[in-house]
Amino acid sequence: MKIRETSLMFNQRRWSAFVISLVLIAAGCGPGISERYDVVIRNGDLYDGSGGPPVRADVAIRGDLIAKIGRIDGSQARRTIDASGQAVAPGFINMLSWSNETLIADGNSQGEIRQGVTTQIMGEGDSMGPLTPEMKKRREDEQGDIKYPIQWTTLAEYLQFLEKKGVSQNVASFVGAATVREYAVGLEEKDPTPEQIELMRALVRREMEAGALGISSALIYAPGSYAKTQELIELCKVAAEYHGKYITHLRSEANRLIQAVEEAIAVSRAAHIPAEIYHLKAAGEANWRKMDDVVRMIENARREGLPITADMYTYTAGSTGLDACVPRWAQSGGLEAMRRRFRDPVLRRRIVSEMRSAADNWENMYSLVGSPERILLVEFKQASLKSLQGKTLAEVASARRKDPAEVILDLMIEDETRVGAVYFMMAEENIRKQIGLPWVSFGSDAASMAPEGVFLRFSTHPRAYGNFARLLGRYVREEKLITLAEAVRKLSALPAQNLGLERRGMLREGMYADVVVFDPKTIADLATYGKPHQYAVGMNYVLVNGRIVLDNGRHTGARPGRALSGPGI
Known about the structure:
The protein has helices at 2-27, 102-105, 110-113, 133-141, 155-165, 177-184, 194-209, 229-241, 257-271, 291-304, 335-343, 345-355, 365-369, 393-400, 404-415, 428-435, 463-478, 484-491, 493-499, and strands spanning 37-46, 55-62, 65-70, 77-82, 87-90, 92-94, 117-122, 170-173, 175-176, 214-218, 245-249, 275-277, 308-312, 317-321, 375-379, 420-424, 440-442, 515-518, 539-544, 547-551, 554-555. The chain is α/β, with parallel strands linked by helices. The strands form four sheets. Strands 1, 2, 3, 4, 5, 18, 19, 20 and 21 form a nine-stranded mixed β-sheet that branches. Strands 9-10-11-12-13-17 form a six-stranded parallel β-sheet, with helices on both faces. A hairpin with a 2-residue loop joins β20 (547-551) and β21 (554-555). α6 (177-184) packs across α7 (194-209) and α7 (194-209) packs parallel to α8.
């Protein structure tokens, strides 16, 4: 009897151990289970993001994390990717994305996924929150081809909306100084009261506590251009409490470029906050020579201990609205107020006169480019004007037999928008210089799109499809300006470190599995100014948070992107 009892107890214990082992296996803790993976990428040349030379190593992914790097048996994975002859790298980070609306229209983000971008950073001066009811209505009224109801109020709610809707990439954002100014002060050119400053600071604090990366400014566009330096410092002081960053489209990238860089450095110093310069450039031929002075200024500040960095795109043309040709006083009160001034004969004559003059007190894109032939029209809202997309301002002015400056005002009245345009105004020599700077990362300054659906209703700048592939193809492989290892660092680890993104930007065990696999011999941009809606080539696999989004060059439809938080959370 005792023997039977003992045998029964043994069998019960053995059964219990078996059940426990099943539980451990399900949890990934059983014997040998630590060697089971969801994906293994084998035989690739591993560029870990540090800037060091590549090593031949395999990458094993379990869930959303990199579980192991080394020699790994492919039979241990549910899916094995053979990366022979290809580069394996951390996912790229787009430091300046305008995909705020295009991700709502299409969360697949193929234009950037096919270049290896796994994280988009948004919010140049203007962000998707915080919003008042009046701001929501105004934004809905001013929407172009992409239309959507605004179902959020704060910036954090917008990012959560994207994650819930489903996006293929991670997203994060700065809170726009212009947005909080519009919330507290309005669209008019005036100084805020002390009470309005405190409201703006409170809005920044709320967004920083909810995960914003910091404060952004775009100081050539109304109403952001109305902010004085001290206003920016007060907002940045709040962001600094949460280890945030100040990132700025300088008050001038042209005639007053030196003074604008001085202002950015002064804000960093006064607010004790890291600062980054958006799309570093010297615009207008007369200003190209200033780039050497700008680089010296930034490097002197860095030696002083100020964490000043910059980002750039790999093209000699920028892109913005035609309103960038209009003096800022004429934009006070918003787009409709600006159009009313265009219709007033006296004010119109003054506006056109100032547009034709090179001025130091505002950034005049019309005079900077030097010729209407160097302004390419790319985006209209009204169907009656769509035929003008892809034409230069000179061509349209000639067809209308009218002065080009007058045509700019007419087009904005007729389209009831800013009208999207491409401006040719930078030097290729400076592009090459900037690429070599160790503190410069990359941003497209464009929206991610696809050559299909709603996106074919308007044209765009080729940087939307080619900015990152162009770096790797033209400037790394063909011109050998920097090594591939250094390019990967500037596309991944450098921006992740600058932004304070937790466990992103490098291939290390325990890091999030944002991984790209591409062919260094073939990666290239195909988009042109004449035909911008063309995907880049050479990117074969993209994983975001461990999920395969691009599989042998094809989008899987997976949308594992997350709303990322800044370092203050």
